[in-house]
Structure formats: structure tokens, C-alpha cells
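request received
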Amino acid sequence: MPDEGVWSAQDTTPAAIEAALRELLKEQHAKSEAYAPARVLNMVAVVDREWRGEIYNRLEGVGRYHASRTILCAVEPRRETIDAWVTVSATTEDPKPGEIALTRERVVLDIGPHHLPAIDSIVDPLVVSDVATVCWAPHGHTEAVDALLKLSQVVLIDSIMEPDPRSAVHRARELAKDAYVVDLAWLRSTPWRERIAATFDPAQWLEELGRLSSVAVRHRPDSAMAGVLVFGWLASRLGWEPGSLMQRNGELFGRASARRGDVELLLQPNPEQSAPGLSGITVETASGVSISLERGPGGLSAKRRSRDGGESSWTLLGASRGEAGILGEGIRQALLRDTTYAPALECAAAMLG
Amino acid sequence: MATVEQQENPLVEGLERLPVHPTTLVIFGGTGDLAKRKLLPAIYNLAHEGALPERFNLIGVSRSDIPHDDYRDMARDSIKQFSRREPDEQVLDRLLERLRYVPGTFDDDNVYDNLEKQAAEFDEEAGIPFNRVFYLSTAPAFFPVIVGKLGEHKLDTHEGSEVRVVIEKPIGTNLAEALELNREVLSVLDEQQVFRIDHYLGKETVQNMLAFRFANGMFEPVWSRNFIDYVQITASEDIGIGTRAGYYDKSGALRDLVQNHMLQLLTLLCMEPPVTFSADDVRDEKVKVLHAIHAPEPEHVPDMAVRAQYSAGMAEGKAVAGYLEEDGVPEDSTTETYAALRLEVDNWRWAGVPIYLRTGKRLARKVTEIAVTLKPVPHLAFEQAGSVGVQPNTIVMTMQPNEGVSLSLGAKIPGTRMRIRPVNMEFLYGTAFMSQSPEAYERLLMDAMRGDATLFTRDDEVEAQWRIIDPILEAWGQLPGPLPQYAAGSGGPEEANALMERDEHRWRAI
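response:
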């Protein structure tokens, strides 16, 4: 097991926790100069107490994308005091001579609902200064997120977790006014967006982008928002005027106006899809070309039908990232800036009215 | 808002992985060590990450007369053994479905007929012409043979797509060979089609040098002869030659590391800011640096170059043999396992600043670093007694083992007296980035498929490197053995220390 320093206290204060963190870091460094604290990102997660372990394990599962300091605030009904567990551990037990072993810090706090409106005053002393801070509240706790915006530069959301796409778009736009938003629903669509972009990249296919006549996106029933974001992305990148999406037989249906005519948009729930996100995309052009991407073994299965009716199929190689991979990607993206999400979100908002 | 009429793909904006044209990659030497250990695992990792071109085919070419399936089995085993991650069986299966094998010798016309047939089948199946990348992972003697045959069989061009050829080092063993090889290659291909690999340039750590210099306003103002006293570049290895005696004894430290990797580090350190980071703008600036280094006259070589061999010594607490006792090394070998040079870049920025290079095997530690020592402060008002005193600032850029940058500063020793000693301000990349660096070959393979030659060596760059190294090799060739010795596990030969002491400088401890 890697070397670990641990401290815990009941009914404690942020100042005591911060002092314990400093002491544990000093102790680790005294054990070996090879221990070097990672200084990349603070992650503040606000979760329901009963799901604390599950979220802790999810954050552990992101591997190398682990934040340098994780502060997990577990909200317990009726709790009045703050209990804390602090762990400082090295990623490698026995670094080779001349090599370093990164240390990471985890702070788990049990707090009560009444702490949430001013949670920033609890967390602020605990984050590493001059390092970006991302906050994440997978179980709601909007009050806490709003308070944490004072000290966070980035908010991690998963807009498929909102009750419906309209409220998801509304919440994402609200948050985007004060912080950079990393949306896991958007990241789930990244391989699909990359592949659609690649499909039309060869010069002989590029002009077909101007002739798109329909786009159908299939998704897990709870992941319609991921599909709406794909529509928003296409509309914002291709200069479409987005129209309203409407319910029809359990599907969302609408149109967007492109320079050469309307583009039909269709969102279809796929109950057989087990993982959150998309299960397939079909794009058709007015000239009779059709391209379909579906989840398949070893990557996305692609099928192209050309104007003359000829078909070809192939696999777009790539391993599934899994939910741990998506969350890790979300943490990594907190340090980058994707300028295409906000325009896609605005177009999505226009489609949802 | 982007529109389709721009003839650029508006969908690529914001994507981290830019599309790469469908590609068929052909590896000559497909059963060789480099293919097994580096290329096939790199290709797998690119597939795993979804980074390969949308449509991708792979063809191995080698002498072994084996069927496709046996080659697939070999590729699968190699990937499982050498990949930096556990392969996903489904991705691996799908990748290997697109793998073919063409057996034959590299001078055999049937090989190229079969290659064309196979590549054409891929094109026909997809309905589009794939780009073709030929990777020459073979002994250097085959480079002109293969390129010549590609030309004869019209494989050097492909209607509607690009053809590129990747050539592994070494590009010749001296200037004459490099010139001849470049001439032969460029009689068939355009320079834009040729990608000469120096895998050192694919390392994130080396690319970071450009970021360090040109993304930080605090260093460039002192980056000149006005503030820099001297520079030392070290690439030391703690291991011996292992089982590579056959190769190494013909090569030696100067050819193996200095002519290519270490001169690359030197050019990145000394180049002027390029106008853009396009391949030719960057390489133009690097070549200017090489041109500013005067090739030594033969009689001056002993004053600026030191060579040596390791003798028996201790490594990791164990007794190890000297170079001449290693298996496969002739007992009268005069191949150097250590080389140290003193060079000067004779231009406006660097004139008069000595740049010392050293590399060697079986040294005390494995380290690659550049240490830039600034000139001392003009006046010392502090007490010298009772401390090591004020030392010149040194900026150290470490490539391995711990990539980072450190800056030595003078700081007051706590107490009632004003005494100074140096302290280190240290930045380690590993503490500040979460991402795992891709293997150099992953980056370089993608760049070659994308047609970005920035991290590849241009013909004039290779030739300029050899123009510096050739006179040293010639002078050493005239001198009799035996060579100066240094004990295995030590910091190098005394002669190298003398090289620096003449300028009143000292090597950093390895």
C-alpha cells in the first residue's frame, strides 16, 4: 500500500482541518523528499451523505485524472456539526532513486443542510491557492453550488441528470454566467462529434455538409439532453437557424433552417441502450448520401450509403471510456477551454424554447 | 458563425483530435524489433484512444514468408507485451482485421506489385483513395533500395491523396553518406514527402523547451550572451551497451546521441523565435543555429572534443565489466562510449558563450538536462565567510528522469548574519499535469499521417549536423588507441573535466 497520512476529528472547524492538512504534508515530506504534492486542481464535491462512498469510489476511479486535492462534502439531514477525515497519500509506495512520488490530498467532510448557503466559508480555507477549483454536485444541492461559485472557476455538471432537457439547458446557461461549465453530457458526445467531423473532412465529402437534410440521434431514454447538444453543435457550427423541438410519439422532432433548405431533426429514445449517452446517429443529405454511426464492438460501427445506393461499412476504432473515463475526462477538461459548448448550448436553448 | 462555403471543415473547431485523412500505413521491417516494441504498440494505443484516421489499414512488409494470420498473431503478441496499457480485446480484434502482410525482400519487385495490389484493394473497398505512409523501419542500407523501388513502381504518388515516407535514423554515418542518402531519396520524393524521425523530438519534454522559452516572458530577456555565462547539455546513461555491441561498436557515442538528439536540444535552446510554429519556420530557425556553429579544424579537435571508454567499475552496487570486456566488442576497439564537446554558436545572440555537451554510457546516473548558468552578479556586498556564498543563478531544464525546470537562487541563511547560500526553486511537470504523455512514436506517427513535419528533421538540418560532427570523427579516426578510460558508475573521464576547467567552468554532478 502507498504511504498514507491520516487525520480525523469530530465537531471540528475549517481552521483545524487546514492545519491538519499542512501537518500531514510536512510529515509526508519528512518521510521522503521524493514525495511531491500534486498541484493541478482542487475538486469540491457536494453529495448526499448516503451516497458518499459511491461518489468517493467514482472519484478514485478516474485514475491519473484525480484532482490534487479533493474535498468531498457529504450532506447529512439534521447534522449540526462538521466531522472531517483527511488523508494525504502517495501514488507510489517506493519511488525509484531520483524519481518523485506524487501525493494527493483527500478531505471528507460530513456537514448539515444548514451549512450549505455558506459552504464556501467552510471550503475556502481548504482549497489550494492559485490552483483552479472545480465544483460538482451530482445530487443537486444547487444552493451549495451557487455559494461555491465564489471560489470556483469551473462547474462540473451532467445535464442528463436534470429532470428534462429544458431545465438542463436553463441550469447550464445560468451557471455559465459565473463559471466555465464542463458538461459530462457534452463530453459523452465527443467521439460522435469527432467522427461526424472526420466523416465530412475529406474534400470530396465536405460539400455534402451544406446539403444535410436530416439528422437522427438515438439515445438512452434519460439522455435526450446529450442529443439536443449534438443538434445545438451542428446548428452553431453550420450556421443553421434552429427551430423548436416538439414531442411526437415519445420522440422529439423539429427542424432547423439551413441555407439550402430545412434540416429535419429527430431524437429517438433507445431503451436497449444501457450506458448513459448516445447509441447512434444517422445523417442524410439531400443528394442521397446517408451516414450512420452505431455503438459496436471495438468502436463505432459506421455505414455509408452513397448517391448511387452503394453501401460500405467499417469500424471507427476506439475503446469505450466507461463512466469513470467520462468523469476523468470532465476533470481534465476543467483545465481546458472548449469554445464550442456555449454556442451549442445557446442553439439548444433556442430549440427547446 | 462558421459557414460551409469557407472550404474548411467547420465541424473541427474546438475538437482536440483533428480529423486525419483515411490512411494505409505500410511498415517495411514489419517483423523487426522496432515494429514489435514501438510501432505496433503505438498504433494500438492510437486506436484505443480513437485517434487513428477514420479509416485505417496497416500492412507489414518483411522477409519472413508467413501468412497474414501468423503476422496478426505476432502483432497481437507484441502489442500485448509492449503496449503502455492493457489492450481492449475488441479494439485489438478490429485493428488486426485491417492488418495485412506482404512477404519478400526489399529489392524484390513482387513485393511492390503485391503492395500496390493490396493498397488498391483497400481504396476500392472504401471508394476513396487512402493516403499512403511508408514507414522504413529497416537497416539504413535498405532506405535507398526501398525508396527507389517505390519510385519504379509508381508508389511515390497516388492520385487524389498524399504519399509520405518515414525514415528512421541514422541518416548516414557521416556527411558523405547523409548527402548521398538525401540525394537518392530526393531523386524519387519531394522533401515535403519525407519524414526523418528523431524520436527525441517526439518527447513531450523536448517540445516543452519551446513552450518554456517562447511562452514565458521572464526568460527571453536574459537569453543571450549578455546574461548567460555558459551552457551544459548532458545525456548520461547508467547502463552499458547490453546486447547492442554489433551496432554500438560501429556507431559510438558521438554518432549515437550527439549528432542527432543532443544537437536537437542545442538548436531548440538557441534558436530565435520562429515567425510561426509551422514546420518550415521552426526548422529554418534550427538550421540557422547549426550553420552558426563552426566545424572544427582537425588540429583543433583535441581542444574541443573528448572521447573515452568505460572501464570496469561498480553499478548499482555490483561489479560490471569495462567496454572492451563486453560481449561482442573487439578488444582493440577505439569506439567511444563517452563524448564531450565544447561548441560555440557564433551569432549575435550567443557569440562567446561556450556550450558544453556530454554523453556517455555506464555513468553514475541516467539524466538528460540542460543547465544554463547565468553570469555572476557584478558586486558582492555579502559575507562570504561561513557559507558557500553567492553562486551564479542556474536554470536547469530536466528531460529525464523528472521532467521539470529548476532555478537556483541565492537566499539568506536564517540567523543574525547576512550570509547567503543557493536554494532551488523547483517545478516538476508531474505535479502540475494530470495527463499521461503519449509515447514519442504515437505523436510522431500521427504527425506523419497528418503531414505535419515540425518534429521531423529536414535534409539541410541533417547535413548541417553532420558538418559539425564529421571533422571530429575524422580527427578521432586518425588518432591511435587506446582511449582514455573512466570507471563504470563514475561521472566521466578526467579529460572531460579538463575541457571545462580551461574556461574555469565545472560540470554539474551527474
